[in-house]
């Protein structure tokens, strides 16, 4: 990993002359009051390493007749300088070979020089950055899209199911009627069958009367017509036998009552209306049940997709434990960015930036005064454990600061570049390192 071994800055913004050897691991805190040149140090580092896009709009210190002079030595042996009227870039490796900005761009992560750009990005943009870093962005995006589509579909079907349930509950129910509509033609046909059977019974009864009358007449004829007695007696015997049979048959006859059918025929419209109401309610209840089953099925599909998302993230090479992406947004320990503490935000940002370019082992941080001392120490311990170098500023003049910037100098070392002169008599000559 590439880190900053030492740096020398002269006449950049508020800095007059600063020489610094930052700690290789953990925090190097540049302290001081407001307007003394703390942030100018970070801006100078970003400019010399990041190129002209990081050049301050008014780079040369106000009042200085000498142009900015920036010198940084990296842990891989590269020496990077910007000096002269046009602040020309010079990059020299340990063997004396010269190179340019392209080499620096390959080695130095841009966001390490511009941490606020990441910090101020939207939560979704941070999440997208993480997903791209760990190589699961496209897969997770497809799962999120499918989950959203299923969620929308489940919502719509659930709404229909609720409507069906409410509609079914509002319909009348008549438990004492048949399940299918009754046919008037069928009732009339049954009525006609009964009337036909009753007519046959009447015909049989009439036949009995006729036979009785015939028997009487024949009896009288027997008396009057003795000469035909033999023939008439045979006929009488036959008729008498038929009479006996007819009488026995007539005794078992029963006339059916059509009153119930007549009532049904008269009430068929009302009856069928109730039957159809029952059928509508049953249909609505069946529809509601079917849509509810679809909702349950989609809910299971969503659960399966979420398991796939979890598995995908669990198997990914994440920059930090407990770092994740939920619905496209970055989360840490279950919290979204705006609910993280300041130290957690810096830790997450630093870890992600490191993952973007593992070769870049340093990051610049401004305004660390938002952290209390305990949190600051905790953050510094984490940086050391990760082997990361952080050069940061803090509005403070207390012991937690590595150096104090005062009026463009390091306090106590106001003339840092004339090392041959004793500290108490150091005289800084502008433009000389």
TrEMBL record:
<feature type="coiled-coil region">
    <location>
        <begin position="274"/>
        <end position="308"/>
    </location>
</feature>
<dbReference type="InterPro" id="IPR038729">
    <property type="entry name" value="Rad50/SbcC_AAA"/>
</dbReference>
<dbReference type="Pfam" id="PF13476">
    <property type="entry name" value="AAA_23"/>
</dbReference>
<keyword id="KW-0175">Coiled coil</keyword>
<dbReference type="GO" id="GO:0016887">
    <property type="term" value="F:ATP hydrolysis activity"/>
</dbReference>
<dbReference type="GO" id="GO:0006302">
    <property type="term" value="P:double-strand break repair"/>
</dbReference>
<feature type="domain" description="Rad50/SbcC-type AAA">
    <location>
        <begin position="7"/>
        <end position="308"/>
    </location>
</feature>
<protein>
    <submittedName>
        <fullName>AAA domain-containing protein</fullName>
    </submittedName>
</protein>
<dbReference type="InterPro" id="IPR027417">
    <property type="entry name" value="P-loop_NTPase"/>
</dbReference>
């Amino acid at each position: 990993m590439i880190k900053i071994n030492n740096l020398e800055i002269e006449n950049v913004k508020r800095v007059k002359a600063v020489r610094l050897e930052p700690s290789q691991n953990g925090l190097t805190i540049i302290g001081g009051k407001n307007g003394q040149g703390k942030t100018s140090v970070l801006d100078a580092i970003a400019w010399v390493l990041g190129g002209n896009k990081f050049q301050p709009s008014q780079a040369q210190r106000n009042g200085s007749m000498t142009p900015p002079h920036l010198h940084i030595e990296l842990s891989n042996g590269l020496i990077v300088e910007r000096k002269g009227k046009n602040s020309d870039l010079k990059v020299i490796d340990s063997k004396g070979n010269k190179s340019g900005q392209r080499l620096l761009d390959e080695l130095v992560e841009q966001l390490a020089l511009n941490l606020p750009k990441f910090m101020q990005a939207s939560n979704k943009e941070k999440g997208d950055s993480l997903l791209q870093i760990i190589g699961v962005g496209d897969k997770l995006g497809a799962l999120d899209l499918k989950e959203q589509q299923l969620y929308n579909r489940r919502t719509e079907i659930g709404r229909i199911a609720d409507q069906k349930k409410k509609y079914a509950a509002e319909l009348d129910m008549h438990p004492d009627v048949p399940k299918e509509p009754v046919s008037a033609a069928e009732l009339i046909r049954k009525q006609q069958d009964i009337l036909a059977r009753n007519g046959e019974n009447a015909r049989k009864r009439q036949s009995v009367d006729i036979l009785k009358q015939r028997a009487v007449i024949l009896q009288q004829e027997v008396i009057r017509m003795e000469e035909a007695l033999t023939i008439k007696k045979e006929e009488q015997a036959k008729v008498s036998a038929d009479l006996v049979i007819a009488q026995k048959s007539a005794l078992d006859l029963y006339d059916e009552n059509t009153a119930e059918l007549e009532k049904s025929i008269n009430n068929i419209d009302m009856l069928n209306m109730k039957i159809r109401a029952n059928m509508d309610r049953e249909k609505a209840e069946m529809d509601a049940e079917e849509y509810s089953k679809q909702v349950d099925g989609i809910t299971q599909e969503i659960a399966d997709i979420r398991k796939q998302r979890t598995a995908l993230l669990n198997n990914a090479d994440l920059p930090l434990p407990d770092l994740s992406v939920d619905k496209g947004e970055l989360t840490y320990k279950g919290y979204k960015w705006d609910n993280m503490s300041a130290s957690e935000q810096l830790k997450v940002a630093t870890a992600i930036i490191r993952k973007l370019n593992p070769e870049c082992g340093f990051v610049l941080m401004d305004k660390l005064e938002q952290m209390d001392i305990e949190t600051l120490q905790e953050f510094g311990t984490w940086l050391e454990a990760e082997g990361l170098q952080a050069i940061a500023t803090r509005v403070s003049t207390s012991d937690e600061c590595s150096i104090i910037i005062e009026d463009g100098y390091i306090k106590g070392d106001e003339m840092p570049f004339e090392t041959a002169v004793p500290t108490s008599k150091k005289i800084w000559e502008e433009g000389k390192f």
